[in-house]
Inverse folding.
């Protein structure tokens, strides 16, 4: 009876089950979070600790030297470092935004309007996920060359719009939108674009928030080295990789780089995940 | 006799007009569905140009000898013949890949689902944080590094030193070079990394389930959380389960980064050689793109087949 009062929303839950659940999550969770702790700890290790033998998991004498060295190296860069940061931020933001909108529109049409060819097209998209990208690199390069998009932002941004994964994810979630909801919007005189944007998209908010994470992660790590040659168009991961090429002496800087590259996706992850959970814990979809 | 001829000519006319009718019908359909096609067009065009065309070109290259520098030479089925009849390493890589996929695919899939569900049982405030913790291997840079430290082959590696302290072994085990141990170690690492795309889609899917259904379930006599999972939650999650299954298949058949980072390319005695490792070996190290494309095509067809089998199994959920 006491449990009911503490948790009015959750029915049919036994106390033992709740405890077991938490114990399992803590055990496995501490196992999963190891690399993150390791990355944080490494970034603050002085050089002698990074190469210490036997290796140590946690830092003993934390220092910010690695970050200082990194910023010194950045300042020496031939192209201002802010340029690399801008390149990556711009291509990531544009690619992600375009992908979410374009893939969602296509998914909406495929799921909610049955038309000739819709099933076939969807099957092709899903099947394409299974082809190894290693061998499509050369044909992809040829396509870029034919379009004259080599060495432009377009080569990084536009292909991201058409990733198969986004369409597949959005289409699977659109199945859960009740048709009656869309029908009533149309009855009220809303056009398809309005129905899509104001009715369908809010219904599948968890889906596109999740898609933002996937797309962001892919683009954030893109070096673009096959398509981009001009130094001022190169991306942040590319520039940072160059710094790491410096060999052993740069190991400390490398650890700092890894931590800094991790921060932005993690922050974005926390923001999107908590808004997924907040919006949906109050209301579900209703027919 | 004349009746037969009449019937025949009627039949011929019939098919001709029905063909014409189909064409007109198709045109009508396109005009009628023009909004749908407009919604689909931007994605369809980009997808065709940057995915479908490269895939078709690669499949075409699998029938050629192509060393990247010279123009491809058509050699028919030769790549495939060589692949199956004279490439022992390929057959070994197929065996390894199937073993990896058969074990890590299903376990990773169920683990993703279970952990997503376990986390969903927690109070909303700490859920986002827990999702981050379980997704950590997929979001934090050079994750394999830590496993090299763990499975280091000397007595100081974490696993070796722990096992020696506990008295299970007296000498350090060379985890990443000994063919007997490479695969199990790789499997552990792959499983540990398997809470990725599918896991996040399950987390998102669990949020969208109508709460009223759970209340109705209680009226219908659902007694515990397992019954609730099977009769209400999973049937509502079917689209996400399908998505997660495809993600599991594509990732478990495409394992390659982990083996290269931990066991090297090639690994000792090819003990951890996967099909994608083989493909990378020929495509990017030996510059035999035609042969690599043949490997990719075989892998592609295998995955399509597995996907068919799994999707049929998933239709039985909640029954």
């Amino acid at each position: 009876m006491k449990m009911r009062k503490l948790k009015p929303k959750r029915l049919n839950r036994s106390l033992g089950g709740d405890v077991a659940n938490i114990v399992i999550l803590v055990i496995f969770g501490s196992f999963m979070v190891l690399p993150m702790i390791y990355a944080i700890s490494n970034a603050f290790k002085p050089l002698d600790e990074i190469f210490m033998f036997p290796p140590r998991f946690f830092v003993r004498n934390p220092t910010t030297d690695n970050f200082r060295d990194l910023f010194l190296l950045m300042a020496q860069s031939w192209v201002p470092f802010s340029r690399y940061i801008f390149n990556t931020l711009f291509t990531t933001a544009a690619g992600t935004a375009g992908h979410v909108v374009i893939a969602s529109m296509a998914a909406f049409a495929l799921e909610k309007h049955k038309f000739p060819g819709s099933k076939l097209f969807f099957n092709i998209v899903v099947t394409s996920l299974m082809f190894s990208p290693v061998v499509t690199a050369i044909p992809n390069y040829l396509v870029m060359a034919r379009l004259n998009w080599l060495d432009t932002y377009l080569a990084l941004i536009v292909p991201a719009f058409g990733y198969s994964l986004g369409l597949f994810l959005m289409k699977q979630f659109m199945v859960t939108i009740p048709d009656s909801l869309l029908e009533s919007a149309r009855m009220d005189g809303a056009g398809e674009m309005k129905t899509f944007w104001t009715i369908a998209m809010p219904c599948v908010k968890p889906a596109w928030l999740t898609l933002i994470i996937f797309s962001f992660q892919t683009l954030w790590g893109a070096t673009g080295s096959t398509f981009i040659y001009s130094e001022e168009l190169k991306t942040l991961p590319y520039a940072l990789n160059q710094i790491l090429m410096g060999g052993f002496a740069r190991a400390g800087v490398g650890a700092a780089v890894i931590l800094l590259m991790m921060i932005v996706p993690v922050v974005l992850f926390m923001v999107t995940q908590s808004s997924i959970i907040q919006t949906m814990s109050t209301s579900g979809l209703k027919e | 006799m004349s009746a037969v001829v009449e019937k025949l000519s009627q039949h011929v006319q019939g098919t001709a007009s029905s063909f014409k009718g189909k064409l007109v019908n198709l045109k009508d359909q396109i005009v009628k569905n023009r909004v749908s096609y407009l919604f689909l067009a931007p994605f369809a065009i980009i997808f065709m140009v940057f995915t479908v065309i490269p895939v078709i070109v690669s499949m075409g290259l699998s029938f050629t000898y192509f060393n990247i520098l010279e123009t491809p030479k058509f050699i028919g089925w030769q790549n495939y013949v060589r692949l199956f009849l004279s490439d022992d390493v390929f057959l070994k890589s197929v065996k390894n890949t199937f073993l990896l996929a058969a074990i890590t695919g299903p376990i990773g899939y169920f683990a993703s689902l279970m952990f997503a569900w376990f986390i969903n049982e927690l109070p909303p405030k700490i859920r986002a944080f827990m999702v981050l913790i379980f997704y950590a291997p997929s979001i934090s840079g050079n994750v394999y590094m830590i496993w090299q430290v763990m499975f280091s082959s000397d007595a100081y590696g974490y696993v070796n030193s722990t096992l020696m302290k506990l008295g299970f072994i007296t000498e350090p085990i060379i985890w990443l070079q000994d063919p007997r141990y490479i695969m199990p170690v790789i499997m552990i690492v792959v499983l540990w990394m398997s809470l990725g795309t599918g896991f996040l889609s399950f987390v998102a899917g669990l949020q969208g389930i109508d709460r009223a259904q759970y209340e109705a379930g209680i009226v219908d006599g659902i007694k515990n959380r397992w019954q609730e999972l099977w009769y209400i939650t999973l049937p509502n999650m079917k689209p996400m389960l399908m998505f997660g299954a495809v993600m599991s298949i594509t990732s478990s058949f495409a394992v390659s980064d982990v083996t290269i980072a931990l066991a090297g390319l090639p690994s000792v005695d090819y003990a951890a050689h996967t099909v994608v490792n083989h493909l990378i070996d020929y495509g990017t190290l030996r510059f035999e793109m035609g042969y690599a494309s043949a490997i990719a095509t075989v892998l592609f067809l295998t995955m399509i087949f597995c996907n068919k089998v799994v999707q049929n199994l998933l239709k039985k959920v909640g029954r």
